[in-house]
Specification:
Length: 392
């Protein structure tokens, strides 16, 4: 019975992989399409991006070494990652609606023990501290506040050569691609303090079609009543009259907490023509959380609650992605040649879409190791579940 169930699970996974691989492979030919199918299936079955593990999971009726050699040869094709990435984005963009959250994140692919991998460089954090050697990743996933599903949109990977320039150029290009695919105005970018950079906030603010919700650092300067004031100074003087009982779900179980928030109307010194809002949240940490947004905020509990929940949702989605990559052992990518690394990284990212399809199909969640937003972090609507307010 167990063997029959495993056989049925594999057949169902193969069916989903075949459909997704066909969509991702437009424009790359039959041989490359077969490679995409093999890698997606092998990654999913083996929970590993290593070519040897993928080859073993495929269970082909030829020698394991021959399978590995074929996979390695096709993984070196430089044209695959850009085409697969574009196809994935075009496929997933239809799921982005007016108020969909576009979660922007910068994970790292650390390879501290690797010595022969191409273009390995020192990786630093946002404070300039060394965290190891490897590659930078930037990605965007789409999610709704009221849904537990995640849709991957786009990914970029690069070795760190000039930290500030590389970060800006890859992030600007990534967000521009997502915006274009989603029609230019759909979705709202949600990001942490890594996006608190005038090279990003300036252009995003100047483009009236761009909407964002970005957490600021305390020293970031804003215009308030025609004066330059830091975000922390504004937060200290901001009333937070709107309170809400919330649930903070951690390893020790649900913990009731109380958040209170308010807002101030501000502008960005490098783009002063567009009015913005600074949302101040107390109760999350010792220091107030400051969120800069293009959304029109007024003294309305529903609107402010929706914005705070949108940012809290980001935390939960980041935890979900981290757990997914840990289960699928993203850090075990170990191949020679940067093209191979890019190709395997984008296919690992595409696995998130495979799990999204499975969730919608209503299959066995445990069998497929489905990806859903995990019950972790702050949930503003768990204590008293109501209709989710609409972002305006």
């Amino acid at each position: 019975m167990i063997e029959a169930n495993n056989s049925q699970i594999r057949m169902d996974v193969e069916c989903l992989v075949d459909s997704l691989a066909t969509d991702l492979s437009h424009g790359i030919g039959k041989v490359a399409t077969g490679f995409v199918k093999d890698v997606l299936l092998g990654m999913e079955l083996a929970h590993s991006p290593r070519l040897s593990d993928i080859a073993r999971a495929l269970e082909e009726k030829i020698g394991l070494r021959a399978t590995h050699k074929r996979l390695s040869r096709n993984a070196a094709r430089s044209e695959l990652a850009p085409i697969i990435s574009n196809n994935l984005l075009q496929l997933a963009a239809s799921r982005v609606h007016d108020d969909t959250l576009l979660i922007l994140d910068w994970p790292n692919l650390l390879k501290n023990r690797a010595e022969k991998m191409e273009n390995l460089n020192v990786i630093t954090d946002t404070k300039g501290n060394r965290v190891g050697r490897g590659y930078h990743l930037a990605d965007v996933v789409a999610a709704e506040v009221s849904s537990n599903n995640i849709t991957p949109l786009a990914q970029s990977i690069w070795p760190e050569i000039n930290p500030d320039t590389d970060f800006l150029s890859h992030t600007v290009e990534l967000v521009a691609r997502v915006r274009k695919a989603c029609g230019g105005s759909k979705g709202i970018i949600v990001a942490d303090r890594s996006a608190d950079h005038m090279g990003l906030l300036g252009p995003w603010t100047e483009d009236s079609n761009n909407r964002y919700l970005v957490r600021l650092r305390g020293h970031t300067e804003l215009m308030f009543r025609r004066q330059i004031v830091t975000a922390s100074e504004l937060a200290d003087g901001c009333d937070t009259p709107y309170g809400k009982n919330v649930v903070n779900i951690g390893q020790q179980g649900p913990k009731p907490e109380f958040l209170h928030f308010g807002h101030k109307s501000v502008r960005l010194p490098v783009a002063p023509d567009r009015p913005l809002s600074l949302v101040v949240v107390r109760g999350v940490s010792h220091e107030p959380v400051t969120l800069l947004t293009t959304e029109h905020v007024r003294d309305n509990r529903g609107i402010l609650t929706a914005l705070v929940e949108a940012y809290c949702r980001r935390w939960r989605i980041m935890s979900t992605k981290l757990r997914f990559y840990e289960r699928h052992q993203l850090s075990r990518i170990r191949v020679l040649g940067f093209d191979r690394i890019r190709n395997l990284a984008i296919l690992e990212f595409a696995l998130v879409y495979l799990h999204s399809l499975q969730h919608e199909a209503g299959g066995d969640v445990r069998a497929y190791d489905d990806i859903q937003v995990i019950e972790e972090g702050i949930d503003l609507y768990r204590a008293a579940r109501t209709e989710t307010p609409r972002l305006l």
